[in-house]
User: Fold these one by one.
Assistant:
Number 1:
Amino acid sequence: MRKRYALAGASSRALFMYAKPLSTELKDYAELVGVYDINPIRAKILSEECGGIKVYDSFEKMMQDTRPDATIITTVDRFHHEYIIRTLEAGCDAITEKPMTIDAEKCKAILEAERRTGKKVIVTFNYRFAPYASRIKELIKEGIVGEILSIDFEWILDTVHGASYFRRWHRYMRNSGGLLVHKATHHFDIINWWLDDDPELVFAFGARRFYGPTRKERWVRCLTCPYKKTCEFYWDITKDQFARRFYLEAEKADGYIRDGCVFADDIDIYDTMSVNVRYSKGAFLTYSLIAHSPYEGWRASINGTKGRLEAEEFHSGQRVDEPIQQIRYYNRKGEVITYNIEKPRGPHGGGDERLRRMLFVGDVEDNLGYMAGSWAGAMSILIGVASNISIAEKRPVGIKDLLQ
């Protein structure tokens, strides 16, 4: 019997990650029974793209009419907690995009609602499912590095993808918690998962050094900008067929501007960040994130009592098309062992498709603990939440203190 799913939030992520696959290749396993969004135009477009899913202008009405087994939450981050809790209280499980939420109070409210209702929260950390990240987890689990003492992790966003966060709703802390919550929740979760441990203490630095009011030639949005002929960040929303239809033509419903100026003076998230974390078993994490690199990808070095693992992945630039990814292991004998992993196709290192198969079909074995619940969601966002507090108050922040 197919399970029934409702969708809260008609975002592009909702359309391409969930709605389209559920309406096509996964339709024999799951049924998408309704979509709700505060913007009826975007909800209608999503419905049309997916065979005419019923559109609702009331979340409660959708839940009452469709009686889903679970609700998929893909709204703006600051509303995740609201729809998670309302879903749990309606007697359904909640499947939420990362981050689970954006601050400690909302996080505590979700954990309390889950305990109170007995229903379940799933956080869709797709990067756990990427074969490259999974292979690192396997090697750690096999014990080749011994006890992990420290991890150095660098994530770099380029000036296409990275800049997009400064055009969209993400550029305000009140919406996303900044990149240390919205984006880094992926990275912190992977590290927590590799370590099989919880963070304990956080200290961080962060600043806006590249975007925001760093130049005089700025405007409200690209569409009407008088500097469009000279600005290297000009993006013509009218030439992107999907963006024009899904966002530009839907502006009249809620006023959301998708092509905001990346140099606007009201941007308040950071573009350059550095974080130190101590874990409960003693491991240290040194983490950095920038959103203005010439190319995009990440590097990790995992140091243990028996040796060191090094890994790197490229998402843009000259090396993005390399067919083989490598993990290098340096042991205490002076040897280097190289593990080759064929680069998979698909978004997020091939993780999206594997996550969907496990979530909606159940034919992917969960031998490494891929599927994440509310505690994993909490531990990943709270590193970012603690980092934001640390940056603002110039002090270390304990994770347990945030849950008091």
Number 2:
Amino acid sequence: MKEHRKYLRLPFTSTVRIVSSNNIPLFATAININRGGIGLYASSVIHEGTSVKMDITFKDIRGKEMTEMVKGKIIFNYKWHWIYVIGIAFDQLLNHEETPYLFEYIENCETMIHL
């Protein structure tokens, strides 16, 4: 199977609060991230094409708990045993201005991989 990602997928563990137009939050666990999107495990499905707002809570590279908000769209989902695997493409690439700590995490991981 050919990989279509433009950016390197990085391991990432965090909690994610997802809200769509129904304003009912869904809580999920992140499994990976890159500059353009995030992969999650969740207990409920969100349908492909749904626009969402996410509050991503994680430990930054210094070990401090941070929460950053990112908007995106569900690009895939499927059931895997008792959970749903969800892929979300960010509306825009992560950057220093709007998501400085997520971006710093990704840059730091990419630097370590390319040493």
Number 3:
Amino acid sequence: MEALLEIEKIKQLKARYFRALDTNDWALFAATLSQDCIGSYSDGDLSFDGRDAIVTFMRDNLSGDKILTLHHGHHPEIDIVDATAATGIWYLEDTVLALEAGIRIYGGAIYADEYRKVDGQWCICKTGYKRTFECSEPLDAQHSVLKNMFRDI
């Protein structure tokens, strides 16, 4: 039963990670990562050492009203290694609306995470994904943004 409770805590951690990305809550996003977290995104094309580097990249590239994101993490496979370590595999479905470029990018990926328990709290200490597919299409009159939490339309 204890393992199930720890798995649920890790699921909630990853949910906060995705929500923080999509709402530009960079303090919350940082709180999900260990100080020494390693991030490897887009099949390793975007790699970062340390929480500060990951947060800076995400904040600089995903903030504001010109880039809107949607991250869904599905089908978690979480293994508790010991009292302070766990691993997880997640299926990612994501959408990025690049409003200035006028495109929608969407796709799927497989996340592989490592988690560490520090002072009684789980954090992500290694994260990254490999794409299963990625597509793009133009945003036009038929595919326009009707609502944007970061500005009035």
Number 4:
Amino acid sequence: MDKNKQGAVPRHVAIIMDGNNRWAKKRLLPGVAGHKAGVDAVRAVIEVCAESGVEVLTLFAFSSENWQRPAEEVGALMELFLGALRREAKRLLDNDISLRIIGDRSRFHPELQAAMRDAELLTAGNRRFTLQIAANYGGQWDIAQAAQRLAREVQAGHLQPEDITPQLLQGCLATGDLPLPDLCIRTGGEHRISNFLLWQFAYSELYFSDLYWPDFKHEAMRKALADFATRQRRFGKTSEQVEAEARS
């Protein structure tokens, strides 16, 4: 697909799912109720992306900074994540959706780590659509672990420092072989990227919604995709250059 073509569907959409706690607080409910309600929004967004021709959807489920939240909330999130993996894996399989999970898994309970592996293995052969979940993930961590991988290659004598290019480092990121995100969506009214996919967002279009995540469903996702279709992505070129290329 021509990356400069207006009206195009993004190959890769990444979403910062913000506003679960505020959604619950507004309804005088415990915070975990917002996270549970957010699962329905995940299903809705997957449906819209898959039917629209999006190839990859990355969801920021749990950041490396989220461990600082109250222990009760973190525990509830882990239980919710475990339950969702076990409950939704078969649905993903039946809908030809592959699941990938990125982030540092070492801090998760072994039972949750096993559930992650099982769900990934179950859906590994699916080709219609890729759902990528970022869990215990941070953009700074991702760049650091990629640099460490390259440093080990240099130390082993397999690589020279001058051989390291942006493309080589990019291939060592957790998102590795997937296309870079074309569109980053953040719900909840905040306007920041919160240490998510820092390298990968270099040329992503940013879209901010005031809706809390549990309210961001089919219509809201379609609106975001329609907005993306109006954008002119220049990648450092002038508008005239992009328009000339589109006509050729």
